[in-house]
Design brief:
24% helix, 10 helices, Antithrombin, Chain I, domain 2, 16 strands, 486 residues, six-stranded mixed β-sheet, alpha+beta
Length: 486
């Protein structure tokens, strides 16, 4: 059966949402999946619900199809059964670390919903993992009701701060080494204004330096070079993708910047043939038809057909990382999926995906995203809608775990930012994210069916670690010709 799919791409490691792609170590284990013991060339068909039946004609040996074209198949070191790829990769095994992955993914899904709802039809790209890490560092110095709210927004349940820190210690030590042909680099830093250096508690600095490998720097924010110095660190740690996270001038009440930088680059397991890329019609969210350079391939990969969407998982390198593309049947279904998607849904879709031959058409695209339409105020409002309120108010209590406050000296979170840039092309993908929380201080208060997927309309995307479930990036593409939302 030939199916035409319009994709909603979620990019994530995500960093990323309670969604753990099929081969993670979470509660939905290998043995629970209907495909856990199947081989790449197992016979299976799929019914309308996406469950596998029998008689698959998809092969995994690169044999020619009926038209005589060779179908790209996994290389010898890439097993179509994703569980095999993860058996040989380093794994996050500590329960607290896996709980952090789940919380980051759930947080990312909630933030994605808030972002899309405020984006007014613009393309969206977020890194849940990057933003979750920055807030985790903030939580180490948060007290009272502000800590309770942040704990809930980060989806941590009853996890204590020690378990959170230990979890991130293992995550940071593991993720960069999952696939030798994939570059994944993460870096954390805290920039302190020399005017307020004596206010920062050493216990707090020790905690984030130890658990998050944070670089600690003290500079004068009043110097004209301060912005450039911080932006250069971000640029260095995103391979030049993010160059202007902070705009001058820095306000006189700014005391600290907590920053995470994330960079990802990976080749497809099966590259698209550049000779087959050609301009084709893409119907945007507003109904306009635009000619977009569209890539084409026919490959044996994992596929799932839901009630109102199609899903395909496109592996990178040795199969540990992948991009999942979700193509809703209509714009209305796109909205429904975004509003209701959950970590459990994500897990189910990947567990019940199956290897089959997919005839795929996918736009070559690039998306740059700056918070919510470039508005930090709107981004803060998104977090407030999620339940994080008091940390944005002046107080001598809420941030007293990181700063010596009291009397007339108060602090608050003054700004929250994230910038991302993602490029998807015939050879693979390259993406970067930088997330920031600014702390301000004042005195005096204040189966074997063949599928055709033609991504020629808005879609969702996600880049994720298939072994541990982290969602690195996730996004919504409404118009591939609109690179930036600024």
């Amino acid at each position: 059966m030939t199916q035409i799919i319009r994709f909603f791409l979620l990019m994530g490691l995500v960093s990323a949402i309670g969604f753990t792609g099929g081969c993670n170590n979470s509660a939905s284990s290998k043995d629970d999946s209907p495909d856990a013991t199947s081989d790449a060339d197992s016979d299976s068909d799929t019914d309308s619900d996406g469950d596998s039946d029998s008689d698959s004609d998809s092969d995994s040996d690169g044999d020619s199809d009926s038209d005589g074209d060779t179908i790209a198949s996994p290389s010898d070191d890439y097993p179509t059964n994703i569980y095999d790829a993860c058996r040989v990769a380093p794994k996050i095994i500590d329960k607290s670390s896996l709980a952090v992955v789940d919380s980051a993914n759930q947080f990312g899904m909630a933030l994605f919903r808030e972002t899309v709802s405020s984006a007014a039809g613009a393309n969206v790209s977020l890194s849940p993992l990057s933003m979750h890490q920055v807030w985790a560092m903030v939580l180490n110095g948060t007290m009272d009701i502000a800590a309770d709210e942040l704990q809930e927004v980060l989806q941590l349940g009853d996890m204590d701060i020690s378990a959170l820190n230990d979890g991130y210690t293992e995550i940071l030590a593991t993720l960069d080494n999952l696939d030798e042909d994939v570059t994944l680099a993460q870096a954390n830093s805290i920039w302190m204004n020399s005017n307020y250096e004596g206010m920062v508690k050493q216990d707090y600095i020790d905690a984030v330096e130890t658990s998050y490998n944070a670089v600690i720097e003290t500079i004068s924010f009043a110097e004209p070079t301060a912005t450039g110095t911080i932006n250069q660190w971000v640029s260095d740690n995103t391979e030049g993708f993010i160059t202007d996270l902070i705009e001058p001038p820095i306000g006189p009440d700014s005391a600290m910047f907590l920053i995470n930088a994330l960079y990802f680059a990976a080749p497809w397991t099966f590259e698209f043939d550049t000779q087959k890329t050609a301009p084709e019609a893409f119907t945007t969210r507003t109904g306009d038809s635009k000619q977009i350079d569209t890539m084409h391939t026919e490959i044996n990969v994992r596929y799932y057909r839901g009630d109102n969407f199609q899903l395909v998982e496109l592996p990178y390198a040795h199969g540990v990382y992948a991009m999942t593309v979700i193509l809703p049947d209509s714009n209305e279904e796109m909205d429904n999926i975004v509003e209701n998607i959950s970590a459990e849904d994500w897990q189910h879709w990947h567990d019940y995906s199956f290897p089959t031959t997919v005839e795929l058409s996918l736009p070559r695209f690039e998306v740059a995203f700056d918070a919510i339409n470039g508005s930090s105020k709107a981004f803060i409002e998104a977090f407030k809608s999620m339940g994080l309120v008091h940390i944005f108010e002046w107080s001598d209590l809420y941030l007293s775990g990181m700063l010596n406050l009291g009397g007339e000296v108060q602090a608050k979170v003054a700004d929250v930012k994230q910038k991302t840039l993602l490029k998807v092309h015939e050879q693979g993908a390259e993406a970067a994210a930088a997330s920031l929380v600014e702390i301000a201080v004042i005195v005096d208060g204040g189966g074997s069916e063949e599928a055709t997927m033609n991504v020629n309309r808005p879609f969702l995307f996600a880049i994720h670690d298939r072994c541990n479930g982290n969602i690195l990036f996730m996004g919504q593409m409404n118009d591939p010709t609109a690179v930036s939302t600024n």
